[in-house]
Amino acid sequence: MYLMDSEDKSPFGYDAFRRTCPSHTVLEMLASKWVYLVVCALRRGRLRNGELARKLEGITPKMLTQTLRVLERDGLVRREIFPVIPPRVEYELTELGQNLAGLLSQIRTWSEQHAPDIKDARARAAAGQEGDLVA
Q1: pLDDT tens digits for 36-89?
Q2: Which domains does the chain have, with CATH numbers?
Q3: DSSP helix/strand/coil, 70
Q4: DSSP state for residue 86 in the 8-state scheme
Q5: Under a CB-based contact definition with an 8 Å cutoff, are residues 56 and 64 in contact?
Q6: DSSP secondary structure code for residue 66 in this structure
């Protein structure tokens, strides 16, 4: 167990504010947009690699493979290989992954709901910076 320095005392004995705490590395993994999007994409059920690639616009095959490996390693995704030719591989969330997906879905809903607010704030900030250059 780790001693906690942060103001928010965790009942689990971990402190994500500490760089050496295991929960810190979990947060690092979760901070990846691709981890977030893959987990959300798998929330509704099993998908093959190609289905995931089509759903996740902009992800490269290499990044998709790396992300799936990280999620499998961390116990969030289960990979099943079917013995057919060519081999068929499907991915699904584990119980732990489903639990995480519920939280991430709330963040996704919030981001979609507040995207116009953020867009407006960015436009105001950009206009303010342009005004600073003129002055």
Answers
A1: 999 999 999 999 999 999 999 999 999 999 999 999 999 999 999 999 998 899
A2: 32-134 (1.10.10.10)
A3: helix
A4: S
A5: yes
A6: H
